[in-house]
Amino acid sequence: MRRLTQPRRTGLLASIRAALAALFLTSCVTAAAADGAPPASTPPAANAPSFWDPNRTPEKPDVSGLRQIRFLTEDDYPPFNFLLSDGQVAGFNIDLARAICVELDTACTIQRRRWDLLVPALNDNSGDAIIASLAINDETRKQVDFSGPYMLTPGRFAMQADTTLTSASPAALADRPIAVVAGSRHEAFLQAFYPRSTLVTFETPALARNALKNGRVQATFGDAIALSYWLNGAEAAGCCVFRDGPFTDPKYFGEGVGIAVKKGNTPLRRALDYALSRLAQRGVFAELYLKYFPVGPF
Asked: By the 8 A CB rule, do 173 and 219 touch?
């Protein structure tokens, strides 16, 4: 889900997007300790994650001059944005945009653009905000301002459902084969924190998942969103489950994605932050998350 603003996406990002699309359509819908342990991970839970402090709500900004929000998005990144059979755009990002407009009691429009035209459309005032899983990083901050993050793409381990391993710790996986995509941030994470494991690298996430399903390795480590759809889909056939995690170290897994606004549009950015926080507090964000991520990455 971590995406850049160049017209051409890197091979890794494109492969992640393709894997997510295939899985979605198939299923229809910090520092290390002295012993080399990875950064602390969040225990798995059935509930949606929260990216906002539950004890703090941003002060409600003055939105009296906010007549409408013209959201810009794309349509080829399911389950975040995709086209329905009637040509309408749908997805997690779309529902979230509409919920924001309801929270702010303002009109809302959603316009589709090609990925490479999103930022130019924002900057020429064709739209007010981009909600298209745009990564927050040093590069994108040079072009746009962001709301706070509303989604992350953590790393997670999957293992066979009948495994005798009860943990995915470095000690438990010492001398064990782990499937991972070669050259990925997931491989870099394992090299840093699982030095005693045997890394079995593959060219694509699908090959790494198949190695786990077929018993060639005892775990696979990868993009938690793609893994969640695989685990819940027909291809996995109930073979495997998540074990431990998620792992969210920003050095390896990024800072998340946010809603982008034109540089200097502080009033809209503050309004978006307020709305996102309120949606989280009222449980609306959790409902949307569980709708699109029934076997969630968190």
From this structure: yes
Residue 119, number of CB atoms within 10 A of its CB? 19
Map 103-126 to HEC letters: HHCCEEEEEECCHHHHHHHHHCCC
Per the structure block, which two tokens stand in for 155? 């790393």
**From CA 202, how far away is CA 182, in angstroms rounded?**
6
Beta bridge partners of 69: 108
φ, ψ of residue 101 to 5 degrees: the values are -65, -35
231: helix, strand or coil = helix
pLDDT, tens digit, for every residue of 59-96?
A: 888 888 888 999 999 998 888 999 999 989 999 999 99
Q: Report whether 155 contacts 253 (CB < 8 A).
A: yes
CA distances from 275 to 97, 99, 246, 251, 271 (A): 10, 9, 26, 28, 6
Taking alpha carbons only, the member of 217, 96, 74 closest to residue 159 is 217
The two counts, helices (H) then strands (E), for the chain are 10, 13
Residue position matching structure tokens 């899983």? 133
Q: Are 49 and 228 in contact (CB under 8 A)?
A: no
What pLDDT digit, counting tens, does each position of 139-183 carry? Answer: 999 999 999 999 988 999 999 999 999 999 999 999 999 999 999
State the residue for tokens 């696979």. Answer: 220
Q: How far apart are CA 86 and CA 162, in angstroms?
A: 42
d(CA 150, CA 1): 12
Query: If we measure between CA atoms, which residue out of 262, 265, 259, 257 comes closest to residue 61?
Result: 265
Work out the angle between the directed axes of helices 284-292 and 266-281 (0-180°, nearest 10): 80
Which residue, chain included where needed, has tokens 């996102």? 276
pTM (two decimals): 0.77
Closest CA to 227 of 158, 150, 152: 158
Rounded CA-CA distance 59/62 in Å is: 9
